[in-house]
């Protein structure tokens, strides 16, 4: 079970070196890197800075930053001069005319500074964001290049799987892009403004400046200490988020098996617990960050009070300012200018603090990505190998030994020596897991051998150019990999570098036996294969993959169980045509089916990683007791058993029925309604640390049954009569197409207020109280600022007013100091409370999104808008981004509103005309703000969509990297990925322009507004309507309020990004749950296993009909039923419909006479188990966890797991592993979903069989269970099926292509009847 990862916070400086989760770095690589001790330096923010054009962007951004940095200090000087003129007018030095003339010129200066602020800050935002976009573009390109050149063994070592690694990489690029954009620009701007403001302050009144800044060194030390606590917590959070991403990727890419096995509760438990642990790490981060900013806020404000106190006692002005005209005295205007400059410096210091946390994340992300690139440079730096003039095709293995990186202690090949003759066909035969497929992988240089060497045409394989070899060698693997494109494009990828006509693709598909696929639909060439080829059957996928290899037509061809999903007749025809086509060219055929081997071909029999026998087939069969001869005898014996039915199954009452009429339904078991005893995985048990989450599946109101008539099969519900499909099912099924939500959810159009409403409804009572406390602290913080500004204005007045008494000065000094302390505490409380509330809000919706995703029908996952890569980014990157809505923007927005209200009230008291002026200014600003917000939202949504699209392309290429490498499709995906990245980059340009306009307008708002306010103030003072003291107080209050409003307006671009992220997550968390899977609540006490398909018709979404009025009755306690037919005839669809993975709009399916729509879907999948055609093992879980996966309320004891493994014939192999049943399966980079390089195809298939048997179902469904098994393994399974049906009374249904040897023959010795399906109907 997933456990929290402890981190010693004292090792903060070593954390980066010891944590490698973000790049998916293995433990060995991590320890090697730890010795080099890299540090997350500031330079990592520019790790992917691309070219000279980007340098010009950067130069322009820096120049604009410097220019904008001069605006605020210059504004301080101008404002100081204006106030100095007012003071001189008050002292009688200036006349009214002189005052107006001097102030008017200074007002024009302010307006000019506003224009300069608009231009410089707009350019600053555009250029820095464009630099960030350029670096993100380059980073995405480098990540693709880095991953596509990696060898397969590197992917096998990924600790959290390839999918989680890719999601983490996308998040790192976003963190790097975010840091280099506006945050870095604002940080540099704040540094420049602070330095220049302090210089101005020193020049005007150096004593006051030093008195104010005297405690800065101590504050800096405290800040550094608190900041050092953040990196280890950031890494700890990332580690747990990686575990959550791992679960999400594992689930989404294997959703059909997760649903079939009732694995939703397990996956939701792992995900929610990882999210909870990540949240705990963030809460501690929030504490240190809030403490850092709270202390800084309090100290900065307190410095002013202490500075004024110190300066008043040491100033040449003397007490009460009476000596202000003496030599060496400081002029009042200088004091005001110095104070204003220090205030601006302090404010920008405070603005810089939250940006530092963003920069820290960016530095760490850049460090991880840089390390990934440095490893890539080593790979790219390797010298290219030899490229021979001619490719002969003669391969020789010389004492070769090999072990997969995922199992280094277990050698797959042991000193193997063999020779593959050029221009001939060579067969490699052996049992499952003997090492046959490994030979093909080594020929392609997918892995490096640990012992011995391999030669090609006499040249060592290591000396040959890998690309050249892959140009001349094609491999068709057992697990067919198709891409999310059309059928035509998937075939044409065989010649990705040249143009392919439909006629060429058609000819290749015909040779691959795909005539049925060609003529099944008029638009077959434009038909989408779906992600991983999910929209095609197993046989159809193999035909398309084989057609791709035929079109490629290389000198060397390896077929690794390439036709295992086809029927025996088709297999024979295809193999014969391929052998004829490949005459006089090198062909290696890896198989366990020996029926197609010509007597004159060379055969190597592999046994336990060694060549047990080799020779021509005719010679091997002549040997009396050789390995191959025994294998042949076993094969022939299994074939003979297919021709008879054992005595165990001969019975007079044995009958399978299939007719057009209604089937006769009867059962004798009682029915238990509801599911009141279903376990809640979130309440206790295996997830003790996770908070409670709703049980799976959701509680559905139970149907009350009155006197059910079990003899007729009619169940009475609330109504007196019921048919096979109850009325409640019929009504829902009638509107079911309308319930599929393949359109944008309403959450896509949520505004800020609606998003905020979701916060309150997501919180528990505890966190609602925390939110209320945070809001109260926000009000206190907002009110403290005007109070402090008024106290500061009174302190300033004491320097220029000769009538100020000492006790009055001390009073206002006390008010200012007390307010600073209260404000610091309130600021800490506000930041911390809102941060942990935001984490709780995000955790709730992240868990709800994942839970709702798991409840969606399979049709939802087939929609292009719901691709796995995009969903993974929503659950990690966008969920993390969404937190800032509450933790940052809500608090600052509320502070701005409260400060504005308080300032308005204060101005009403002191001078109502200022309130009217501010209202007019805001009224004029509101339409512009709304325009910029709308434009920024639109651009952000388009940009994020483009980024998600590029991420989906990257994920498809890298998760199938084995196939991409073998077919040399890196160029095709490079072009496809580059186009997606370029679209994102071009979309980002419009985002930059609108964001620049919004930011420039925000930064110019303050000088323009102050120009109007100071003009009004000058007029009021000059006309004698108000005195200088109230005007000074109003100006101080309004200045701080306008600064807060400016800060809020400057957040518009970042707010738009946060809002779009929130909409994406909320779309998932608010998905509707009404589907065919939410129906039914019956949990029968016992199940016999009688299945009836009645008048069933079905077609997949946007597809041709698969089943047409299908009728079949399968009685319980009978020998296994074999369903045969060609690929795409609808066989596998029967199993999917029985498990309620899909719903048929017409007809009915009953289990023991109960319509399956009435049965609780979780219970149904407990009593009906399936062995899918693709094993679908789960990477990152142990062998034991894979077998016990989703066992549910019945549980799965170790003894049941061991017995199931023995029945499937895999127990001995598992025990032979170094860690036995605790061995972790890692899919690596092959994208097959079968457990990858850790297990062979046959071994993975036997684990899947054990997984189904361990559940102890009443009905066992096997879909091509022996396609990857050798005859001896089939015999073991054959005996197991006999025991399950005869001794345990299990209903067993087997799907296969074969009409004689469809299951590989072994299990057919105990098959009772065969049903042949064609065109969606039973034809025999």
TrEMBL record:
Membrane topology: Multi-pass membrane protein
Domain annotation ABC transmembrane type-1: ranges: 59-361, 772-1057
Keywords associated with the record: ATP-binding, Hydrolase, Membrane, Nucleotide-binding, Transmembrane, Transmembrane helix, Transport
ABC transporter domain: residues covered: 395-633, 1091-1322
Gene3D superfamilies assigned to the protein according to its UniProt record, in alphabetical order: ABC transporter type 1, transmembrane domain, P-loop containing nucleotide triphosphate hydrolases
SUPFAM superfamilies: ABC transporter transmembrane region (SSF90123), P-loop containing nucleoside triphosphate hydrolases (SSF52540)
TM segment ranges: 54-79, 106-128, 208-226, 294-311, 769-792, 894-925, 992-1019, 1031-1052
Protein's name in the database: P-loop containing nucleoside triphosphate hydrolase protein
């Amino acid at each position: 079970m997933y456990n929290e990862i402890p981190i010693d916070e004292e090792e903060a400086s070593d954390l980066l070196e010891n944590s490698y989760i973000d790049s998916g770095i293995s433990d060995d690589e991590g320890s090697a890197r730890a010795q080099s001790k890299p540090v997350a330096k500031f330079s990592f923010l520019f790790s992917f800075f691309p070219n000279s054009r980007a340098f010009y962007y950067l130069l322009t951004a820096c120049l604009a930053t410097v220019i904008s940095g001069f605006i605020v200090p210059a504004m301080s000087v101008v404002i100081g001069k204006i106030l100095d003129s007012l003071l001189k007018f008050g002292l009688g030095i200036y006349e009214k005319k002189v005052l107006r003339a001097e102030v008017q010129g200074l007002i024009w200066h302010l307006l000019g500074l506003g224009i300069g602020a608009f231009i410089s800050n707009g350019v600053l935002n555009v250029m820095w964001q464009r630099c960030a976009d350029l670096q993100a573009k380059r980073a995405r390109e480098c990540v693709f290049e880095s991953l596509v050149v990696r060898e397969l063994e590197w992917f096998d070592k990924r600790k959290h799987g390839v999918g989680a690694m890719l999601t983490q990489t996308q998040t790192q690029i976003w963190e790097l892009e975010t840091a280099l954009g506006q945050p870095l620009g604002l940080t540099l701007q704040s540094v420049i403004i602070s330095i220049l403001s302090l210089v101005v302050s020193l020049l005007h009144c150096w004593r006051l400046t030093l008195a104010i800044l005297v405690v800065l060194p101590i504050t800096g030390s405290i800040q550094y200490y608190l900041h050092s606590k953040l990196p280890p917590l950031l890494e700890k959070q990332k580690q747990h988020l990686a575990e959550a991403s791992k679960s999400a990727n594992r689930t989404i890419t294997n959703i059909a098996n997760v649903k079939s096995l009732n694995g939703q509760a397990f996956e939701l438990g792992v995900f929610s617990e990882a999210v909870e642990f990540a949240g705990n790490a963030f809460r501690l981060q929030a504490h240190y960050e809030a403490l850092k900013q709270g202390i800084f806020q309090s100290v900065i404000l307190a410095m002013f009070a202490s500075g004024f106190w110190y300066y008043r006692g040491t100033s040449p002005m003397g007490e009460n300012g009476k000596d202000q005209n003496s030599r060496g005295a400081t002029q009042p205007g200088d004091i005001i200018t110095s104070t204003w400059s220090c205030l601006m410096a302090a404010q920008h210091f405070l603005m810089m603090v939250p940006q530092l946390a963003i920069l820290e994340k960016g530095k760490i992300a850049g460090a991880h990505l840089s390390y990934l690139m440095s490893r890539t440079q080593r790979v790219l730096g390797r010298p290219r190998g030899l490229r021979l003039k001619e490719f002969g095709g003669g391969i020789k293995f010389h004492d070769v030994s090999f072990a997969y990186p995922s199992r280094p202690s277990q050698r797959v090949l042991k000193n193997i020596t063999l020779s593959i003759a050029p221009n001939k066909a060579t067969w490699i035969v052996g049992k499952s897991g003997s090492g046959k497929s490994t030979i093909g992988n080594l020929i392609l240089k997918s892995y490096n051998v640990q012992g011995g060497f391999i030669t090609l045409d006499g040249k060592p394989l290591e000396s040959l150019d890998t690309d050249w070899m892959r140009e001349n060698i094609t491999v068709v693997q057992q697990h067919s990999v198709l891409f999310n494109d059309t059928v035509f494009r998937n075939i044409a990828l065989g010649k990705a570098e040249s143009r392919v006509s439909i006629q060429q693709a058609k000819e290749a598909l015909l040779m691959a036996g795909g005539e049925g696929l060609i003529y099944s639909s008029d638009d077959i060439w434009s038909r989408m294969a779906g992600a991983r080829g999910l929209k095609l059957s197993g046989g159809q996928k193999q035909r398309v993959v084989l057609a791709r290899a035929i079109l490629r037509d290389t000198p060397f061809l390896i077929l690794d169980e390439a036709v295992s999903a086809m029927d025996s007749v088709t297999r024979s025809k295809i193999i014969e045509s391929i052998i004829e086509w490949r005459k006089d060219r090198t062909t290696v055929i890896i198989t366990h089916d020996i029926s197609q081997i010509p007597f004159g071909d060379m055969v190597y029999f592999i046994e336990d990683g060694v060549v047990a026998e080799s020779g021509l087939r005719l010679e091997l069969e002549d040997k009396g007791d050789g390995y191959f001869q025994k294998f042949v005898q076993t094969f022939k014996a299994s074939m003979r058993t297919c021709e008879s039915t054992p005595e165990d199954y001969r019975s007079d009452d044995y009958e399978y029925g299939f007719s057009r009429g209604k089937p006769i339904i009867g059962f004798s078991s009682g029915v238990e309604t509801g599911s009141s005893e279903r376990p809640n995985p979130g309440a206790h048990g295996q997830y003790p640390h996770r908070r409670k989450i709703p049980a799976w599946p959701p509680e559905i109101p139970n149907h009350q049954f009155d006197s059910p008539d079990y003899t007729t099969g009619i169940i009475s519900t609330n109504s007196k009569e019921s048919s096979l499909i109850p009325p409640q099912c019929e009504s829902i099924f009638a509107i079911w197409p309308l319930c599929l939500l393949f359109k944008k959810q309403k959450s896509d159009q949520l505004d800020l207020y609606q998003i905020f409403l979701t916060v309150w409804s997501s919180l528990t009572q505890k966190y609602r109280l925390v939110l209320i406390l945070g809001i109260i602290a926000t009000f206190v913080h907002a009110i403290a600022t005007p109070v402090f500004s008024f106290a500061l204005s009174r302190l300033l007045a004491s320097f220029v007013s000769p009538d100020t008494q000492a006790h009055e000065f001390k009073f206002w000094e006390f008010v200012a100091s007390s307010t600073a302390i209260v404000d610091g505490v309130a600021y800490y409380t506000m930041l911390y409370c809102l941060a942990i509330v935001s984490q709780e809000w995000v955790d709730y919706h992240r868990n709800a999104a994942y839970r709702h995703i798991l409840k969606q029908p399979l049709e939802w996952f087939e929609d292009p808008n719901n691709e796995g890569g995009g969903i993974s980014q929503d659950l990690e990157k966008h969920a993390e981004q969404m937190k800032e809505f509450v933790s940052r923007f809500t608090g600052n927005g509320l502070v701005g509103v409260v400060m504005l209200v308080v300032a308005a009230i204060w101005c009403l008291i002191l001078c109502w005309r200022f309130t009217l002026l501010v209202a007019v200014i805001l009224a004029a600003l509101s339409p512009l703000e709304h325009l910029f917000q709308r434009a920024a939202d639109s651009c952000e949504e388009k940009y994020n969509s483009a980024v998600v699209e590029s991420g989906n392309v990257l994920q498809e290429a890298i998760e199938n990297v084995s196939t991409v490498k073998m077919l040399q499709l890196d160029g095709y995906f490079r072009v496809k990925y580059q186009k997606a990245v370029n679209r994102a980059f071009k979309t980002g340009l419009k985002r930059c322009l609108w964001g620049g306009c919004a930011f420039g307008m925000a930064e110019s708002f303050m000088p323009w507004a102050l120009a109007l306010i100071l003009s009004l103030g000058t007029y009021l003072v000059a006309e004698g309507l108000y005195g200088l003291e109230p005007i000074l107080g109003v100006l101080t209050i309004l200045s701080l309020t306008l600064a807060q409003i400016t800060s809020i307006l400057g957040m518009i671009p970042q707010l738009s990004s946060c809002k779009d992220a929130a909409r994406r997550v909320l779309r998932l968390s608010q998905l509707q749950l009404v589907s065919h899977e939410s129906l039914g609540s019956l949990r029968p006490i016992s199940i016999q296993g009688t299945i009836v398909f009645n008048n069933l018709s079905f077609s997949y979404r946007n597809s041709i009909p698969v089943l047409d009025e299908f009728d079949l009755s399968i009685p319980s306690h009978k020998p296994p039923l074999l369903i045969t037919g060609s690929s795409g005839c609808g066989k596998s669809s029967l199993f999917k419909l029985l498990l309620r993975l899909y719903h048929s709009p017409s007809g009915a399916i009953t289990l023991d006479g109960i319509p399956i729509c009435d049965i609780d879907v979780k219970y149904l999948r407990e009593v009906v188990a399936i062995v899918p055609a693709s094993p679908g093992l789960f990477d990152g879980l142990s062998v034991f966890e894979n077998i016990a996966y989703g066992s549910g309320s019945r549980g799965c004891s170790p003894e049941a797991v061991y017995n199931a493994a023995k029945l499937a014939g895999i127990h001995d192999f598992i025990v032979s592993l170094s860690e036995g049943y605790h061995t972790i399966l890692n899919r690596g980079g092959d994208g097959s979903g079968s457990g990858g390089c850790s297990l062979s195809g046959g071994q993975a298939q036997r684990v899947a069989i054990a997984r189904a048997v361990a559940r102890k179902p009443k009905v066992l469904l096997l879909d091509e269970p022996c396609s990857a098994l050798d005859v001896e393994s089939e015999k073991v399974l054959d005996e197991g099926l006999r025991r399950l049906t005869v001794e345990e009374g299990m209903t067993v249904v087997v799907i296969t292509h074969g009409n004689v040897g469809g299951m590989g023959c072994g299990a057919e010795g105990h098959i009772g009847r065969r049903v042949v399906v064609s065109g969606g109907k039973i034809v025999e």
